[in-house]
Amino acid sequence: SQKRLRELAQRSQRIVERHKGLDVNTAGLGETLTPAAQAYIDAYDAGVNKAAALDLAMAKGRASVADLNQRIRSCLVLVRRAVPEYDLAQIDGTVDRPDRLIANATQIVALLTQAGDGVRQSQSVIEALQQAVLKAEEQWAQAQVARVELQKAQGLTREHALVFHRELVTLRGVLRALLGTHHFDYQMLRTSRVIKGAAIEDDGAQEVVEAPTDSASHGVASDVASGVSTNGASTNGASTNSASTSGAPSNGVLMNGAGVGVATGVTA
């Protein structure tokens, strides 16, 4: 996952600093891996914040849309009295379609305004509906902005993840050549470890960097995008091999090229 990759980014920074005097290769990695790791950490953290902001914005948007829907339903009897010839079946919006609900409320305001003072309490109903419409429009628009901001953050996180992962593969190859596969620092940079005393997997295990996919409905997963997996499972069957370092085989990088989106359970 991206969360796991973030942990490796912090860990790799410390390991590079610890071994920077070991070899010219480790010293050089300090100039490339360290900033790449930090850029990824910053992008990941920003994405997590954007995901939380979207969750909050969507909750407010859904609440305001639900309130508008309730107000529309409560004044349908008044509309029937004011404009008996109007077919109420035309008001067919649901909370799943905020734009249609807003259009329905605007239509009801126009009908009651047209009826004039002949309808009792029509003015208070009109004012309440107008306020509910303004609130729903504002908060739903904010939710859409938050959705776009999260998509941008996910894309940036993916870009930095790929850059850092290439540096990570290079670092593991250097440490493997200089320190051996049983060295603690090399093992701590593995993306897949068998817990409780089992052997560390061989570097022949394929690694996968996946493009982020849509989040689960009704909220956004805090894990901003899919990250590094070591199960050797490909995504959409597309694969490319990264270059080997220090004569050691490097791991393959697979991308599915999927777009970034957020499913919220509420459609516009």
Describe the overall structure:
The protein is mainly α and 268 residues long. The chain has helices at 2-18, 24-74, 76-82, 98-115, 122-179, 184-188; strands at residues 208-209, 228-229, 240-241, 252-253. The protein has a two-stranded antiparallel ribbon with strand order 1-2.
> Based on CA inertia axes, which overall geometry fits?
rod-shaped
Biggest sheet strand order reads: 1-2
Question: Uncertain runs with pLDDT below 50, 5 residues or more?
Answer: 193-268
Q: Quote the average pLDDT.
A: 73
Encode the helix/strand succession as letters.
HHHHHHEEEE
Q: Structural class, from secondary structure content?
A: mainly alpha
Supply the key terms:
single chain; 268 residues; mainly alpha; two-stranded antiparallel ribbon; rod-shaped; disordered C terminus
How is this fold's topology laid out?
Blueprint: H1 2-18, H2 24-74, H3 76-82, H4 98-115, H5 122-179, H6 184-188, E1 208-209, E2 228-229, E3 240-241, E4 252-253
Antiparallel strand pairs: 1-2, 3-4
Helix pairs in contact: 1-2, 1-5, 2-4, 2-5, 3-4, 4-5
Quick overview:
With 268 residues, this protein is mainly alpha-helical. The chain contains six helices and four strands.
